[in-house]
């Protein structure tokens, strides 16, 4: 089947579908189209054409049709990954998801449920395709639609009664998928490198979706509230929490497991309560079902390698939860599967420290030597063996750091197993993996033994070793940095040294903060200095992360130290790094937590103080960096979002114009498109405007610009704000109006005339806003033709208000008949307005710019035909109008004028201004003189002498053009009258001369003519 | 609506229910979740073990040749005779990746756990929900015979519901009131 017949077949089915009146038949046709367009690979090239048209069926009245539409869109998920991941090959994916977003809020719950099911499957396929093809472009294009879907799903999940269990189940599942996909490490790797803005969006989307699930799941902790949650929804909520924790334990495990633990406790209490109080059978059955579901979720967590490697605390929480539910055997089994101390939280299950006397301490040199030996062995194990397999759950850099740190003062005998593993170099190749595993396990075993040993070290030894090993590690770290300088800083993964440095600092703090702060300060200062040094050279980011994560892990008691360290580092970076270095932004994004007040104050200083140093280019760059940091924090740090947004907004109103402009761009172009920020941003902009109008006239123009800039910028993004702008104009003082008038032209050029918001303001403009609205319309008309709907609306406004100024912007695009009707009013307009209208209409082409609109020559002719008596337009005005046309020579060129005159000459009586126009034409276009002489001849045939006004003009014109043969053709009485005309005293002489010079011509003249001239007696 | 009956060996409880539901016209399949098909032998320590996929008639012939009297007495031959009329061979739940069900009925807590373990490990592709219900039944031919009508009753109720996600709580409550058995359930996704 060739391409056109495939298409014809699909078109036939589609047309048949549109003609069907029966819902079932329609749905059947949709199924056929699914088969035809999606399932047959050859026909898939038709999808870009058909999917958008099919999406229009979302408005179909039949629920069955809308449901089938969702199924069709779901089937797109079955397309190959290469197609799905490409915005070029599958541009319709956006339409499909947008359509599903709309259907998910359908009035029919069944349609809504089906749409969410389809959206979930389609999202899953699109995500997998993007990851597989290493391209996040398609996801970026689909992002707004996915945001809509997220909001619909959240709304459904939150609804009290509107959506029943089934609909909510899929809403919750969709949110779960969003979190799991958007938080996935694959996508993080893909997006964070290729498109940081998209990465920020994805992270924030995942966070929003996750928050909704957490919010809803919180109700399950409470017995009363949970009774209102349908069992199926509760089950999916619990499973979602489990899925979050399994997907990214470092982000979700603690929160999710804590919540699951609380739910387990509540269910456990419910069991006892129902036994005592005799709850209803349904409640008991639900409790039982939820307990079983929760058990499965918890088992899934404790059996997940990722979760287990994250830490024992989480496993313990899960085991405790299983116990609360009464699954003791599963709880014991979960505890039995816990990992070794490497992955355990610091301090947990460790034997109590026994302080050793100085006599027990090993010589410091020996300890250091052992430590060095252990580091070397660890590195060797990592380097020589194929340890990639273990880097995750078994031997991550994190775990190794723990191991090394735990082994201060280790007895070398503990490494017998390691050494043995090292010696087994000649084993067969197939045993390599086994050896690698043995080495890793040996290291872990050694560490288990050593933990106790290290715990017995004296505190002085620990202090000494902490500083000494930190310096050694810093040296090694700088060396490693130098060798890896060619790699980009983003590629640097946290090395063993990075982890160790952080751990050592944390250990120093954990052990000595209470008793020896100067020591701790020394350690921290040394490390911060080292980080700054590395940052100046090649990065240092990973080292900083190691430090801050380690200190963060010490808990809330050390949060003040953490905050202080962070501010010290940031100030150091401000001093030591160039402003184009993005290290600061990256640091702020990736740190485990940020002190809100301090960070915002720091950024405020960075931006505003830098902006105050006018002319200092570096200061400008710092301000730009500060704004970039604000942007990142708004998107990626929900806890700082509000304060950073407020700071961004206050910068957008700052006195410094350059800063204000940059901040306005940031807010309008980057932040405002995010729906969740729109409300706050709009409120701020409107409040600023209201403050201004309240101040009245006593404000400078600069001040007015300062208050208005943001709203104007927002208007470009959200055209509905135009109404607000016009309302403000209506209330504004003259100074404010002046600024608005100046700015509005640029704004209107950015807004498409087809925007519904423009139509809306034209249909109901705020009273007193006419001038601004006119300026908006003028700017739009200057850009190009206005859409017919808008033209009709403006015409209607003109009829309603009687304000002829509204005719100017639409004159070029009005239907011809309407334009002709309006001409008397047009003629009464000031000259500048008329000129604008004519230029808009004919500057590019005298034939007009819109089909069916008036042409330049028609306008010219119709102006001549305006009846003074009927319309009340004075002749003087009409002369002004025609004069204007003659001024616009580019438009009213010889062609247009000749065409116009030819039309005018056909009218009887001739229009009053006819001969005036002919004379003006002969002056404006001398090349038309021949044409005019012919015209004069024609006028003789039309008995021009009968119209006194035209007759005078005729004689003037003929004389001016020396059209003597024409004059000699006049009947003798009229020739006689012409000769006697006092205004042309020398006419007789000129004609006589002509006759004498053209003897032959004279011979053909009537005798009476020659007699009138006096040539013949 | 598609149903799956699941027990340990796809021999007794799941097959009894499969037989009845099939006879009543429901769209049903059956599976076992164990690693092998186990059939009681001369003593508790000497079970007969077969890989999943071994046709019922082969097992029947082998048992008959081993000790016809014993296997007639413990009901195994009668059970196999019934099974081979229902389908060819016992199937393992974990090996089925192509058939999808709306409702899965397990007949033991351990079976439920094993099934859930398998479901957890599967990648979710279709994002379509299914219901897993566990109805605890002792693994004897008599108890299986008593449980099958209950399974049928429960499946009919679910099938009659317009939307089980909305109605499952009421369905289980009604079922519990009518039969005195309270199954537990959960929601999973393909």
Features:
heterodimer, A: 1017 residues, mainly alpha, Leucine-rich Repeat Variant, 55 helices, elongated, B: 190 residues, alpha/beta, Rossmann fold, 2 domains, 5-stranded mixed beta sheet, two-stranded antiparallel ribbon, 6 helices, 7 strands, globular
Q: State the shape of chain A.
A: elongated
Helix content of chain A: over 70%
Count of distinct strands of chain A: 0
Poorly predicted spans of chain A:
274-279, 337-365, 385-454, 484-492
Helicity range of the residues of chain B?
40-55%
Summarize the main sheet of chain A: none
Strand order of the largest sheet of chain B: 2-1-5-6-7
Separation, N- and C-terminal Cα atoms of chain B: 15 Å
Task: Give the helix tally of chain B.
Answer: 6
**What kind of sheet is the major sheet of chain B?**
5 strands, mixed
Top CATH class of the largest domain in chain B: Alpha Beta
What fold name stands as the CATH topology of the domain at 51-221 in chain A? Leucine-rich Repeat Variant
Task: Describe the fold and architecture.
- The complex is a heterodimer of chains A (1017) and B (190).
- Chain A is mainly alpha-helical and 1017 residues long.
- Among the domains of chain A are: 51-221, Leucine-rich Repeat Variant; 224-338 and 405-410; 678-783, no CATH class; 969-1017, no CATH class.
- Chain B has 2 domains: 2-34 and 93-189, Response regulator (Rossmann fold); 37-86, no CATH class.
- Helices cover 47% and strands 18% of the residues of chain B.
- Chain B has 6 helices and 7 strands.
- At the A-B interface, helix 7, helix 9, helix 13 and helix 15 of A face helix 4, helix 6 and strand 7 of B.
């Amino acid at each position: 089947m060739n391409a056109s017949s495939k298409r014809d077949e699909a078109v036939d089915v589609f047309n048949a579908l549109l003609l069907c009146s029966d819902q079932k038949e329609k749905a059947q046709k949709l199924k056929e189209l699914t088969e035809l367009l999606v399932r047959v690979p050859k026909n898939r090239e038709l999808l870009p054409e058909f999917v958008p048209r099919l999406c229009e069926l979302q408005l179909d009245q039949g629920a069955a049709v809308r449901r089938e539409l969702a199924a069709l869109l779901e089937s797109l998920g079955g397309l190959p990954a290469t197609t799905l991941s490409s915005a070029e090959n599958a541009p319709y994916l956006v339409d499909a998801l947008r359509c599903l977003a709309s259907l998910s809020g359908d009035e029919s719950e069944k349609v809504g449920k089906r749409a969410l099911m389809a959206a979930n499957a389609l999202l899953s396929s699109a995500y997998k395709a993007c990851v597989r093809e290493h391209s996040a472009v398609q996801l970026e294009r689909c992002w707004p639609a996915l945001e809509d879907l997220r909001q619909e799903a959240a709304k459904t999940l939150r609804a009290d009664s509107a959506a029943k269990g089934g609909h909510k189940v899929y809403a919750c599942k969709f949110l779960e998928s969003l979190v799991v996909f958007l938080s996935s490490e694959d996508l993080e790797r893909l997006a964070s490198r290729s498109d940081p803005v998209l990465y920020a969006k994805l992270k924030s989307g995942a966070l929003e979706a996750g928050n909704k699930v957490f919010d809803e799941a919180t109700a399950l902790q409470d017995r009363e509230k949970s009774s209102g949650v349908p069992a199926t929804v509760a089950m999916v909520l619990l499973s979602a929490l489990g899925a979050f924790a399994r997907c990214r334990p470092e982000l979700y495990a603690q929160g999710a497991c804590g919540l699951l633990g609380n739910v387990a406790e509540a269910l456990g209490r419910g069991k006892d309560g129902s036994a005592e109080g005799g709850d209803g059978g349904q409640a008991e059955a639900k409790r039982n079902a939820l307990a079983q579901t929760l058990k499965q979720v918890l088992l899934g967590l404790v059996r997940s390698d990722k979760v287990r490697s994250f830490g024992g605390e989480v496993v313990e929480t899960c085991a405790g939860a299983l116990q609360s539910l009464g699954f003791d055997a599963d709880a014991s089994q979960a505890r039995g599967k816990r990992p070794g101390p490497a992955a355990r939280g610091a301090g947990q299950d460790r034997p109590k420290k026994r302080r050793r006397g100085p006599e027990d301490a090993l010589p410091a040199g020996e300890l250091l030597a052992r430590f060095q030996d252990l580091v070397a062995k660890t590195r060797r194990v990592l380097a020589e063996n194929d340890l990639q397999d273990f880097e995750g759950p078994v031997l991550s850099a994190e775990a190794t750091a723990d191991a090394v740190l735990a082994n201060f003062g280790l007895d070398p005998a503990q490494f017998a197993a390691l050494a043995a593993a090292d010696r087994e170099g000649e084993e067969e190749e197939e045993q390599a993996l086994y050896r690698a595993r043995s080495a890793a396990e040996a290291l872990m075993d050694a560490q288990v033994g050593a933990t106790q040993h290290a715990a017995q070290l004296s505190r002085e030894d620990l202090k000494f070793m902490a500083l000494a090993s930190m310096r050694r590690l810093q040296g090694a770290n700088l060396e490693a940095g130098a060798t890896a300088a060619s790699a980009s800083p983003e590629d640097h993964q946290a090395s063993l040294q990075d982890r160790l440095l952080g751990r050592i600092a944390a250990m120093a703090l954990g052990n000595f903060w209470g008793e020896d702060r100067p020591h701790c300060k020394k350690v921290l200062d040394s490390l911060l200095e080292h980080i700054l040094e590395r940052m100046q050279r090649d990065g240092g980011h990973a080292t900083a992360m190691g430090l801050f994560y380690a200190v963060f892990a010490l808990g809330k008691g050390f949060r003040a130290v953490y905050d202080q360290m962070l501010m010290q580092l940031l100030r150091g970076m401000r001093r030591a790094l160039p402003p184009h270095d993005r290290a600061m932004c990256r640091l702020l994004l990736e740190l485990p937590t940020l002190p809100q007040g301090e960070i915002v104050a720091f950024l405020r200083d960075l931006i505003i103080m830098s902006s105050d140093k006018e002319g200092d280019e570096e200061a400008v760059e710092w301000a730009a960096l500060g704004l970039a940091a604000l942007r990142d924090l708004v998107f990626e740090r929900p806890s700082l979002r509000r304060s950073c947004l407020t700071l961004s907004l206050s910068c957008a109103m700052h006195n410094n114009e350059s800063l204000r402009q940059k901040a306005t761009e940031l807010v309008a172009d980057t932040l405002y498109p995010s729906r969740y920020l729109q409300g706050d941003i709009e409120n701020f902009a409107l409040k600023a405007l209201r403050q201004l109008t309240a101040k009245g006239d006593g404000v400078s123009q600069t001040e007015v610009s300062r208050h208005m800039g943001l709203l104007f910028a927002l208007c470009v993004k959200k055209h509905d704000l135009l109404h607000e702008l016009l309302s403000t104009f209506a209330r504004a003082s003259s100074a404010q109006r002046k600024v608005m008038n100046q700015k509005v032209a640029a704004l209107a050029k950015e807004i498409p005339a087809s925007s519904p918001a423009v139509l809306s303001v034209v249909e109901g403009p705020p009273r007193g806003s006419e001038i601004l609205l006119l300026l908006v319309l003028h700017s739009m008309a200057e850009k190009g033709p206005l859409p017919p709907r808008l033209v009709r609306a403006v015409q209607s406004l003109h009829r309603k208000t009687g304000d002829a100024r509204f005719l100017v912007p639409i004159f070029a695009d009005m239907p011809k008949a309407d334009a002709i009707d309006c001409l008397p009013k047009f003629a009464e307009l000031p000259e500048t307005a008329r000129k604008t209208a004519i230029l808009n209409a004919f500057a590019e082409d005298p034939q007009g710019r819109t089909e069916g609109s008036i042409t330049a020559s028609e306008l010219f002719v119709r102006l001549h035909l305006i009846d003074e008596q009927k319309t009340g337009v004075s002749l003087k005005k009409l002369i002004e109008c025609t004069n204007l046309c003659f001024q616009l020579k580019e438009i009213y060129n010889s062609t247009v004028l000749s065409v116009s005159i030819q039309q005018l000459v056909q009218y009887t009586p001739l229009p009053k201004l006819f001969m005036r126009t002919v004379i003006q034409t002969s002056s404006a276009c001398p090349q038309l003189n021949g044409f005019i002489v012919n015209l004069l001849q024609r006028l003789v045939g039309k008995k021009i002498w009968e119209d006194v006004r035209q007759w005078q003009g005729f004689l003037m014109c003929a004389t001016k053009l020396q059209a003597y043969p024409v004059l000699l053709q006049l009947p003798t009485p009229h020739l006689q009258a012409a000769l006697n005309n006092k205004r042309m005293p020398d006419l007789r002489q000129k004609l006589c001369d002509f006759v004498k010079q053209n003897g032959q011509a004279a011979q053909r003249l009537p005798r009476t003519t020659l007699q009138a001239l006096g040539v013949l007696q | 609506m598609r149903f799956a009956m699941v027990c340990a060996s796809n021999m007794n409880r799941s097959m009894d229910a499969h037989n009845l539901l099939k006879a009543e016209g429901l769209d049903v399949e059956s599976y076992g979740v164990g690693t092998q098909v186990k059939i009681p032998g001369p003593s508790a320590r000497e079970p007969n073990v077969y890989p999943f996929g071994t046709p019922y008639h082969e097992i029947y012939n082998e048992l008959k040749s081993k000790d016809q009297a014993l296997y007639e007495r413990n009901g195994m031959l009668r059970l196999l005779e019934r099974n081979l009329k229902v389908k060819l061979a016992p199937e393992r739940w974990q090996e089925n990746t192509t058939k999808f069900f709306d409702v899965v009925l397990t007949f033991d807590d351990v079976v439920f756990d094993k099934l859930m373990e398998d479901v957890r490990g599967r990648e979710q592709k279709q994002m379509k929900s299914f219901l897993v219900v566990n109805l605890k039944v002792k693994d004897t031919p008599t108890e299986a015979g008593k449980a099958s009508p209950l399974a049928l009753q429960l499946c009919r109720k679910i099938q009659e519901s317009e939307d089980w996600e909305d109605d499952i709580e009421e369905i289980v409550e009604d079922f519990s009131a009518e039969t005195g058995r309270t199954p537990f359930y959960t929601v999973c996704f393909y």
